[in-house]
Amino acid sequence: MSEEELRHELERARATIGELQNELAQTNHGVTALTLELDQRTAELVSANSDLEAFTASASHDLRAPLRALSGFSQALIEEYSDKLDVDGQRYLNHIRNAAEEMGQLIEDLLQLCRVGPANLRRESLELGEMARAVMEGLQAEEPHREVTLAVAGRISAQGDRGLLHQVMENLLGNAWKFTNKRSHARIETGMCEADGETAYFVRDNGVGFDEAYAEDLFVPFKRLHSEAEFTGTGVGLATVQRIIHRHGGRLWAEAEVDKGATFFFTLPQE
Length: 271
What we know:
Blueprint (H helix, E strand, L loop, with lengths): L2 H79 L5 H30 L6 E5 H15 L5 E5 L4 E5 H18 L6 E10 L2 E8 L31 H11 L4 E5 L5 E6 L4
């Protein structure tokens, strides 16, 4: 290669380097702009979380206080003045008290759902079988006349936030308890299995079940597959469970048949 050709190649190489430097400068500018936008979005998210926490605190006090008064005074009327009311008056008063209690439960469920978002997870090793037994003891204490068998399949080891996963077990076992109340031999089972190559946890019952075609509606707040007349509830519990499991990085799904029970599965990825 001649000297002139070498010079030409060197000039081309310098031009290419110049172009690359220009592209690198533009890329750096883009990264800087993206970083600034990310910082702004993070600040907005922190602000939104603060607003949510403020709302939760306000709702906890400002909404519950008048409901407590309404429930308390209606109960006082029932206890002290029911003999002065006719049958219709007593029925109306009971409706008022029941509605106040339902609204209080709905507010509590919504607050529980809101608290899941901003909270920081505190992962630790857990035994979900022990949680299940404790939750079932509480349910049995509230309805001692019911005969429900709880089967815990061995040791159920998991990692996650103890408080949040206790909410998960309370909601899933509470639903199983509720939807087996028409069974003379109710059975609830909890354990571990494998699903798509990962460990899954489950709560299974032999209750009324549901049509799997509507399974996704289970996790939408206020959506219900059974009427209020059949089974009480606010329709928020499973939405809370899904939010908790997603916050852990896991999945939640259900399998069921009408009148043949239901099984709820969830995963909890390791750190």
